[in-house]
Amino acid sequence: MATEEKVAGDKLVDRVKELVREGNARRIIVKNETGQTLLEIPLTMGIVGAMFLPIWVALGSIAALASHYTLVVEKKDPAAAPAGEIGNRP
């Protein structure tokens, strides 16, 4: 399941950090005003803390280039969870 949202350039880094903290995104794609993909951020369980530093630097640089971006957020599908984790309680 993917959703799109428009984000101002000065709010880009903060919004991506917020999405990462929520923890339910699998991938975040940053697109420019013409719809071209500028950055894809895969979010896996193994990526933590210091590994995000290059991503924040890249996002900061990208944010300075234009005023509006589109974030495509692919979220985890709770229906695809292994049996016994969600919704399988007696």
Question: Mind sketching the topology for me?
Answer:
Layout lengths: L1 E7 L3 H11 L2 E7 L5 E6 L10 H11 L4 E8 L15
Antiparallel strand pairs: 1-4, 2-3, 2-4
What oligomeric assembly is this protein in? single chain
CATH architecture: 2-Layer Sandwich
Written as H for each helix and E for each strand, in order along the chain, the element string is: EHEEHE
CATH topology: Dna Ligase, domain 1
Continuous helix count: 2
Q: How many discrete domains? A: 1
Q: Order of strands side by side in the largest beta sheet?
A: 1-4-2-3
Largest sheet: 4 strands, antiparallel
Overall number of strands: 4
Shape: globular
- CATH C-level name: Alpha Beta
As a whole number of angstroms, the C-alpha radius of gyration is 15 Å
End-to-end distance: 28 Å
Care to describe what's here?
The protein is an alpha+beta fold. The protein has a single domain (2-76), classed as Dna Ligase, domain 1. Helix content is 24%, strand content 31%. It contains 2 helices and 4 strands, in the order βαββαβ. Strand 2 and strand 3 (37-42) form a beta hairpin. The longest helix has 11 residues, at 12-22. The two termini are 28 Å apart. Mean pLDDT is 80; it is low at 84-90.
